[in-house]
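User
Class, as today's exercise, I want you to study this protein, comparing sequence with structure tokens, and judge whether sequence predicts the tokens.
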Amino acid sequence: MTSSAAPAAPSAISSALPVLAEVVRSGFVEGHHRGSLVVLAADGSVERSLGDPTVPVFPRSSNKPMQAAAVLRAGLDLSGERLALAAASHSGEDFHLELVRTMLAEHGLTPGDLQTPPDLPLDPVEAETYLAAGHARERITMNCSGKHAAMLAVCAVNGWDQESYLDPAHPLQQLVHQVVEEAAGEPVTAVGTDGCGAPLMAISLVGLARAFRTFVLAGPGTAERRVGDAMRAHPEYVAGTRRPDTWLMREVPGTLSKMGAEAVQAVALADGRALAFKVDDGATRALGPVLARSLRLLGIDAPVVSRIGHAPLLGGGGEVGEIRAAF
């Protein structure tokens, strides 16, 4: 007779993960953020890991470079700022929205063709300005509208159905699935729906770090390298003027960086070293401190690292504590 133990409850799994960041207020540790992390050496081997980076996760927007590479493989001719925006979680700044409109118009499309959910600009400063001007949530201001514009454009180029471009069975999404598996070097273990409505492929953090490594080391002219080069050359289109991904790619030459919702982050350096992590509770406030500590583990100690890692806690309008890395 055989028996099997019941699956561990989510809370038990979470409590078994190491603390990546702690919340310190007035000298008192009032909370913790747990998760998993992996650091790859230049040769692609695992140099350091915390938690279990082999467990599949939804990388969320950290999958966007792979989605942009699929658009190129499908025949859309993008480069420069357009290609960076196709891999973006943009802040909704004017230059982002203007280029999305241009990309759509170049293929006879309009913002009304986008199937992103109506949203405010991702950047809080831009959102306040947008609302103060009397605007309402729109599809184009959703941070994934650049990616969706590229997806619609490649459908127009290939004569593919535009109404179903987000269906996992659509030719484009099947190609995305293939690109994700090839870049990660492992099979996709689950397919879900991202916040923008696009299919979302689950891979491990090791696979995610490996994929980013692929995008900086791939041969010139390949779809992966073209995406990586465009993102690094135009980081403000990947994120925005007030975003850590932009700061890091601008100030540490050759670095590829992309965050994802639910506190996912992936980075690759020009020499092939890479990292990926996920904060288990999805707290994006822990991203900066964990990213900064991870970069220091890779030997990066540029001034931008301290800027990214600064995560103050406020009390009465003043700084009374911080969120800090705990590894």
Observations:
- The first strand starts at residue 19 and ends at 25.
- DSSP finds 13 helices and twelve strands in the chain.
- The chain has a mean pLDDT of 95.
- The two ends are 44 Å apart (CA to CA).
